[in-house]
Every structure is written in C-alpha cells, then in structure tokens.
Amino acid sequence: MLSSLKIENVAVIEKAQAQFTAGLNVLTGETGAGKSILIDSINAILGNRTSRDLVRTGAAKACIWATFTDLSPRTRALLEEAGYEAEDELLLYREISAEGKGGCRINGMPATAAVLREIGGSLINIHGQHDSQSLTNPARHLALLDTFAQDQAQLEEYQTLYRRLIRVKRQMDALEMDETEKQRRIEVLQFQLQEIEEARLQPGEEEQLQARRRVLSHAQTIAQQLSAAHAALSGDDDAAGAADGLGAACGAMEQAAALDPDLQSLAEKLNEYYYGLRDLAEELAQRLESTDAEPGELDRIEERLDLIYRLRQKYGTDLEGVLAFADKARTELETIQTSQQQLEELAVQKQQLYQQAKQAAEVLTKARLAAFDALQGQLVEALTFLNMPGIRFVLQHSRGPLALAGQDSVEFYISANAGEDPKPLARIASGGELSRIMLALKSALADKDDIPTVIYDEIDTGVSGLAAGRIGEKLRQTSRGRQVLCITHTAQIAALADTHLLIAKQVEGSRTYTQIHPLDEQGRVEVLARIISGDHVTELSLANAREMLQQRRS
Question: Who's near 516: CB < 8 A, 6+ residues apart?
C-alpha cells in the first residue's frame, strides 16, 4: 500500500508530504486547492505520461517520492524480473525538469518510465473524475465484462485462432487475381527469367572480365616489360643474362669448395639461387607466350560486359542483385502457376480455422454471459445499498461476425425506476447515478485483481444526502480488503475515513502555496462542519460533525 507521498515544486505545491494508512483515507479541500495536483503527482510517480507544465513556475525541476509497504507477490515478481531487489519497502522517485527532461529511480537505482509504469500498474488503480462518463461508451462495456469474467485464457485462445484465420484469408486474397492479370504477369516473369537465364551469369564474373580487359588493353606494354625482364635473366644476342653470371659464380665456388670444405655451404646456396633463377626465367617465358590474345577476345569481353551492364540496369545494382531477382521471379512464377492448388489447400485451412475460431468464440461468449449473471447480482445488490432501489441491470447482447474481440456485441442497459423498460446507460443515467454505478462496478471488480490501493477522485459527483452516505459506507467496506484513497467534497464520506487529510491553499505575497495537513479529532470536526455549512460554521454544524464522527465509531 501507499504509505507516504512527498512532493516538491509541483504546480502550486512548493513542498508537501502526506502519510497514508491502511483503510479509508479521505482528502478534502476547497475547489482549486490542489487536490487534482495530488492525483497528477501520483500518476507521475506511477510512470504515466506527464508534462513539464507540472513544474512550479520559477523552479528548475519537480520531484516526487512515494513509499510503498506490504508489497503484493505480483509487485515483487515484477521488481525481480526488472532486476531490482524486492525489499520490505519500495521507494519510487520521479523527476521532471523545466526543460522537459526527467529521470526515474526505483529503490535508488535508475529506471525507465516504462518499467516504472509496469510496476506502478501493480500498486495503484486510479478512478478519475471522468471515468464514470466512460460508462456511457458501449465500446467500454465488453472490456469491463471481460475483466469481471477473468476470461483472458479463453480470449487469448480465440485470438490466436482468429489471427491465423485472417492470415490465411490474406494469403488467399494475394493469390486470387483474375485470369487476364495472371497471364500477363506470367508472361512478364517468363520473359525476365529467359533473358537472365540465357545470359548464364556466374557470381564474380563481371570482376574477372574487367580484370582480363585491363590485361588485354595493355598487352603490348606488358609483353615488352616481360621480354625485358626475361632478357635480363637469360641474356640475348647482345649480352649475357644474370643467370649466366650466376652459373659462372657457381662453377668457381665448386672449385673453391673442393679445396676448402668450409665453402661447401656457400657453393650449395649459390646453386639454389642459380636453379631458382632459371625456373623464374622459364616462368617469365611462359607468361610472355600467354600475353598473346586470341583474335577477337577483347571484343567478346566488351560485348559480355555490355550485356551484364544492361541486365544490371533492369534487374539489380550488381551481378548478385540480378541473380537474386531471378530467384525471386522464379519463386513468384511457381507460386502463380500453382496458385489454384494453393487456393484449394488454403480454402480447406480457412474452413477448418473458421470452425475452430467459431467454437472458441462460443466458449468465450458462454463465459461472458455466465459472468454477467454473477455481475448483475452483485451490481443490483450494491446499487440497492447505494440508494438506487428497484434498479434493473440488463445486458443487451448479440452475436455478430468474428472479430478480434470475439463474436459478441454487448451494451449495458438499466431501468432506474420500477415499471420502466431498460434503456442504454448513456441515455438515462444522471451524473450521480453514473458515479454510483461506477463505484458498484469497481467494487465488483476489486476482487478480480491484487492491486492493493484504489484511488477515487470525486466518486461522489452529483450525489448528496443518503446516497452520499451509502457511497461512504461502500468505500469503507471496500477499504477493509485494500487501501482506499478518496478525494471528496461530501461530509458523509469524509466522516467515515480512518485517515483525514486537508489540502489547503494560501497566498503569500504574489505566490500561491498548497499544503497537506493531517487532521486530528478536533480538526476533523472543524473541517466537517465547514463542509456542512460553508463559511458560517455554527454550533449546530459542529455538533452535527461530532455526531457523524461518533456514528462512525459505533
């Protein structure tokens, strides 16, 4: 549960701290005192999207700290999964700078807003002022029913089948082209493949041809230089070559080694050089012969390179791209030519998947209808307690085509008065009735999750008197199983709190300051009396306030 909240430089709050307890925590204050700022701060600390406009004017940054205790198993698991230690206390920190930047920390360690948001979702559930109005949107009703039904497993099983069905339908759509278009596409692909295949392209061929073209283009220069190198080694008509000189040196060394054995190694080394030089001269002679090009070879290379260039212009940036294009075209051609067989196979798959998805949708429908029967009973009981006697709560349900959420179309209908036919919630429910219906729904859904703290922001909008008192009793009942924070303007609700905090605003000089004050018994009496009678607090309103607090204890 949320045990403390510390705020610095958030809107009109320069510095404030609030301590919360288990049970029902109530926050009261004049309109505009800063109660909504408190909700904005809690939303921020839970990792939700925020704005630099939240930073107090003139401050460099806004800072928010929240401490949580009695962590749920789900929160502990999320912390460990994210790489944080699940300690007895959890400290969350959020910083928003005036420049729009910010930072998050979990137990003092850096964190992202996304991780903070995931963990925060297991800590607090906030019911905002406008959530009741969302009940008037029938699109929300199915999600509320699914939450109560706890049918996630059935929904996921159905959606897996539905997505497979849609995938098969798209494959069929891609294959189903008319015969004229199909024949035109076949002819295009066949022409492209024939043009590429007749070229008999080989990977790396273009680089090899370009290298050979360079050799042939400079064949005369290469031959001249090879001939000069060969003459230098082997000699010519005018002069002896290096090999002849080395051969004479070998003969001299052999004679010397015969007289001095220590020279034998030098003689052998000279012999190795000599024979190596003779081999090199022979290799140069062979290379010289190979420089003679076949007649027309250069022209044939130019023609081949021109063909490759034209194919690259059509089908790819390089030779590998042209070959890849051919592979893709070949696959497409085979697909089109065998499309009828594939369509027949896909049609069988489609029918099988449709039947499976339809069966899964029916299982989901039954789970939803059974859940509504249970939900209806709880809602009627809760709403009767909340001073809406005789209410009828009906589910308008129809089966439609399969969609991602199933085959069900649902809308909540109510009859708030005896003798009236049920009508859509949006058409007949007043603001006060919507608040009570939402509270009844939240109470019914409370047992379906393990979120330890629930915040109600002005759940008493549009109600007063007996209905307000009943809302307070319902909140108090809910708080026995979890921590409840409630922002209210109603004395009947505030009197039932275990902890009462006053949010007060004051102006000093030209600046506005908001503070959060925990109230003792006398403070609660005075605040309740002010809620009851406004600025003119009387002994009667004070006595009334004391009586309301006394009744809470009984």
Answer: 16, 17, 18, 27, 38, 501, 502, 503
**Spatial separation of the C-alpha atoms in residues 227 and 235, rounded to whole Å:** 10
Triad 11, 13, 14: Cα angle to 5°: 110
Mean pLDDT of 35-41: 84
Between CA 301 and CA 439 the distance in angstroms is 85
Helix (H, G, I), strand (E, B) or coil at 451: coil
Tens digits of residue pLDDT in 273-290: 888 888 887 887 777 766
On the CB side of 178, how many CA atoms lie within 13 Å of its CA? Answer: 2
23 vs 385, more confident: 23
Reading the block at residue 428, the tokens are 């007949």
Q: How far out from the chain centre does Cα 461 lie?
A: 36
Lookup: tokens for 542 = 């004070």
Dig out the tokens for 51 from the structure.
């704005």
Q: Which two tokens mark 59?
A: 């401050």
> Within 13 Å, how many C-alpha atoms sit on residue 341's CB side?
5
Q: Rounded to an integer, what distance in angstroms lies between the CA atom of residue 366 and that of residue 116?
A: 37
Q: What is the tens place of the pLDDT at every residue in 360-373?
A: 999 999 999 999 99
Distance CA 298, CA 245 (A): 40
- 437 vs 442: CA distance, rounded Å: 9
The pTM for the full model equals: 0.61
Output the DSSP codes for 509-549.
TTEEEEEEEE--HHHHHHHHHHHHHTT---HHHHHHHHHHH
List Cα–Cα distances, 143 to 124, 151, 282, 412, 435, in angstroms: 19, 11, 89, 12, 19
Q: How many Å separate Cα 429 from the centre of its chain?
A: 37
Any long-range contacts for 174-177 (C-beta under 8 Å, 24+ apart)?
Answer: 175/335, 175/339, 175/342, 175/343, 175/346, 176/343
Query: What is the DSSP code (8-state) at residue 239?
Result: S
Residue count of the chain: 554
DSSP type of residue 64:
E
- Residue pair 196/326 in contact (Cβ under 8 Å)? The answer is yes
Our measurement of the distance from residue 170's CA atom to the centroid of its chain's CA atoms, rounded to an integer in Å, reads 25
Contact 368, 145 (CB under 8 A): yes
